[in-house]
């Protein structure tokens, strides 16, 4: 039997950082952000619908989607964000479930679904354990501004478009406190996986 873990948190709390630790432990990760990029490639149904809804102004010269432009639109307007979510989320979910089921069939002892909006989109039923990567809002803001070169306002718009990570932590089966070093978070992850009998105690 495979254990299906939902890895979540809020923007820039460290999901990708923890996701790469699972990879290091040879545990497969299905990355919703990566699938979100695949399903909007030219030729895909979601791509056509985005161009219809948002217009050609969100395209780059090579006709791929200008993610910065689309991001500016949807993170400053909730109804536009909902419109985009309604187009993209079903396609992401379909691919994610296909990949999850393939991992289960292949007999993996564990598979991770890395889903930033696991709680917002009420997808808890897709996973057996919820693992939340937590930092306080000040650290989240600093790391987001540094990583994306955002102004404070741009970063706060994105943070405010999600449920606060404190609230998500209340729903978690386990929490990684990622305010410390990356090595410290890795130790926390290994302890959690030992507790869930996914990695051996000696590791
Ligand atoms: C708006 C888009 C074009 C911006 O692209 P960009 O390359 O700048 O950001 P990226 O996709 O890497 O997302 C970065 C982070 O933003 C947050 N985020 C992305 N989309 C959303 C959303 N609709 N609502 C709230 N937060 C979001 C997540 O924490 C994500 O990890 C893109 O995020 C998108 O297509 N979003 C809709 C799909 C979606 O919901 N993806 C996230 C979960 S599957
Ligand atoms: N423990 C840490 N110490 C210092 N910096 C960190 C730590 N963990 C992550 N970071 C940095 O913080 C930023 C956000 O981390 P990461 O990209 O993993 O977040 P995320 O939750 O996956 O973000 P998103 O929701 O946008 O996908 C990155 O620049 C990363 O290198």
Automatic annotation (TrEMBL):
It is found in: Cytoplasm. Pfam families: CoaE. It is an enzyme of class 2 (transferase). It catalyses: 3'-dephospho-CoA + ATP = ADP + CoA + H(+). Its main location: cytoplasm. ATP binds at residues 12-17. The keyword ATP-binding applies. GO terms for molecular function: dephospho-CoA kinase activity. PROSITE patterns: DPCK. NCBIfam families: dephospho-CoA kinase (TIGR00152). This is Dephospho-CoA kinase. The lineage of its organism: Bacteria, Bacillati, Bacillota, Bacilli, Bacillales. The gene is coaE.
């Amino acid at each position: 039997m495979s254990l299906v873990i939902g890895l979540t948190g809020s923007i820039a709390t460290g999901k990708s950082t923890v996701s790469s630790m699972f990879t290091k432990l040879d545990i497969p990760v299905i990355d919703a952000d990566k699938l979100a990029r695949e399903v909007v490639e030219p030729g895909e149904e979601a791509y056509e619908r985005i161009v219809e809804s948002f217009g050609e102004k969100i395209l780059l010269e090579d006709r791929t989607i200008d993610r910065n432009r689309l991001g500016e639109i949807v993170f400053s307007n909730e109804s536009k964000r909902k419109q985009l979510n309604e187009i993209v989320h079903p396609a992401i979910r379909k691919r994610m479930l296909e990949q999850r089921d393939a991992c289960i069939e292949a007999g993996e002892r564990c598979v991770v679904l890395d889903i930033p909006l696991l709680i917002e989109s009420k997808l808890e039923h897709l996973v057996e354990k919820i693992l939340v990567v937590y930092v306080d809002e000040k650290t989240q803001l600093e790391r987001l501004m540094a990583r994306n070169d955002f102004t404070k306002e741009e970063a706060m718009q994105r943070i405010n478009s999600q449920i606060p990570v404190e609230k998500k932590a209340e729903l978690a089966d386990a929490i990684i406190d990622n305010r410390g070093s990356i090595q410290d978070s890795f130790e926390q992850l290994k302890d959690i996986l030992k507790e869930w009998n996914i990695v051996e105690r000696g590791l």
